[in-house]
Structures
1.
Amino acid sequence: MNIILLGPPGAGKGTQARKLVEDRDMIQLSTGDMLREARTSGTEMGQIVAEVMDSGKLVTDEIVIGLIREKLEGDKKGGFIFDGFPRTLAQADALEELLAEMDETLDAVIELRVQDEALVARIVGRSTCGNCGEVYHDLTKPIPADGKCTVCGGTEFKRRADDNEESLKTRLMEYYKQTSPLLGYYHVKGALRSVDGLADMRDVEAAIAEVLDA
Ligand code: AP5
């Protein structure tokens, strides 16, 4: 199965994608993670990417589509989870072409619905394991008292430079201007399914499983 997880910043796309990797042997393709890796490359492109990401704006379609194209060339395992991609109509068209070239189809687009008010709290409370990327939250999923990641035992945790109220405003604006039109696009194609992203993490997981097993 190939699926897209769609939703505003902090909706829970990364959290749910990691669960699907664990449960269904799928491959998570997060353009955010790919770009965070690119920004540490020390290249001019990495520097440009870093500035754009920290401001909360979108990186160009050309860069992002190039990154996704490279990743689609490998093993498909249980299918791809597109996490944070596509984010523009041009990216959605490119994805359709890339999948068609591989004789693959898009099986579902899952929207995680979360009200804006909840997103600030989610974003400012987030941290991730520096070793395996497991996602934590100061209130809803705190780092264990022994300071060790529950997945890999790592002891270094990171906070993202764009996880602050000011960048979040720009990220939300970009979401409404450039990404939310994709909801209509995939609705018309008959692929859109919506789940309540405000529910408890396990309930969101169950709702996604229901969509995928239908
Ligand atoms: P990206 O890394 O994709 O960030 P994002 O879309 O803003 O999404 P987030 O990673 O912030 O949130 P999430 O939905 O994954 O939530 P999470 O599961 O972590 O993009 C970053 C930047 O890269 C962009 O701004 C842009 O510049 C660039 N970029 C990336 N892709 C691009 C593209 N395609 N085109 C152009 N530019 C691109 O959860 C958040 C928090 O909430 C966590 O602490 C978690 O523990 C908690 N949480 C999750 N679920 C629940 C729940 N059900 N209940 C309570 N808490 C929960």
2.
Amino acid sequence: MKDIIIIGSGPGGYETAIRGAQLGAKVTLIEKAELGGTCLNRGCIPTKVYFRNAEIIENIKHSSDFGINVESYSLDEEKMKKRKNEIVDKLVSGIDYLLKAHKIEFIQGTARLVGNNTVEVVTNTDIISIEGKNIIIATGSSPSSIPVEGADLPGIYTSKELLDFEKIPESLAIIGAGVIGSEFANIFQSFGSKVHLFLRSKYILKHEDIDVSKRLASYFKKRNIKIHNEIKYKKIVKENNKFTIYFEKKNKEKSVTVEKLLISAGRKPNIENIGLDTLGIEYTRKGISVNKQFKTNIDNIFAIGDVNGIKMLAHAAAHQGIEVVERIMGHEVVINQDLVPNSTFVFPEVSSVGKTEEEVKSENLDYNTNKFMFAANGKALALGEGDGFIKVIEADNKIVGVHILGPHASDLIHEAAIIINSNMGVKDVARTIHAHPTLSETFVEAVLGLHNEAIHQMPKRK
Ligand code: FAD
């Protein structure tokens, strides 16, 4: 009997398998499609490869600001896709190597729970049964659609198909302005598409602090991304290989016709045909129900990552799984699952950790905020990336939220994560010398400004 059977080899499944093996568990990992799951094959990594293409294009477009004149450039779509596929393949084979090095049994096949300790796997050649003391479900999620006439028309893209685009579309409509929709909007706008971004709500990236969402919208507009917010969808029609989106805004009927349409309106957990009903495992349409320890209503069966719907991010999936195996193997668990950084790779990047101002307000906390602009940071100006700010929120003398809109936000956020996780306050940051000239100085100034002590910021009126 195995110690741990894991169904699904996304970041949740494979990282959990490796951690389990490190702690001495006998682990079997089962995958029905590609090793590495959504994140590696059609999510985090391919989008970031294309985001890098977009960054290079933006640098070329702005090169004359640096006194460098680039006469012209062109895009080689095949080479761009080839590079993306090579990076994915390299990472997938790296995981394959690590699984072997950790002596993890990997089975390619479709798994289904048939007993509290038994998983049945249909492979290309066989149906096999595996017994395990513990089972971890990490089957991930798939794109979901919207209840609008025409939303199921053939040729409408999900993120998966857009990543394998045949040619860069002249015009692209994106329904949904969450992380995935916003990232694709920026990537394809840089690639040369005319991008229309549709959202029912008022703000793009509505999970972020409103200050960030508002300012980001102004940058999207500057980049000629057309935002259609607060709309009601009427229908989608396909004619002459083009899509027309009919919608209502401020009681006016409107329509936009585009060459390609991406629906990125959220993701649904992969809970079908995995034996949940056979075993009586509880779930809702948001995902498998779990307690704080990611345990289902059956004592030795856990659900981690996108399939439990708690936080659909790769690092959340991995850390939920790591916590589960550490507990199974008798270790003390100290991961703070409530503190998960968010990052969105747009221009400029967005990253946040901890509470938003709206949250501290609704919790009636006595709080204080400060914002420091990248335009006052020497390194940001040298990079030609002075847009954006860092906003810090303090409550009860502790830093409780940090929201970054600016260059390298996704790297800068981790200092803030450690500070919040360690219950630190303004003095702790003030006592730590940060190198000059660095983007990190923006964070220090944003924090010092909470107490009116930032060196490069005008004093706030008392
Ligand atoms: P998945 O990665 O979805 O893996 C689940 C695996 O289970 C799949 O390989 C599936 O084939 C397998 N499986 C399902 N059913 C069975 C079965 N019955 N038997 C065997 N195997 C099965 N997150 C970030 O943190 N950062 C990003 O930048 C980011 N960018 C993204 C961009 C896009 C376009 C998308 C779509 C997602 C992005 N995400 C990002 C989200 C991230 O990909 C997911 O949160 C993450 O992959 C979840 O990991 P997981 O292990 O729970 O599931």
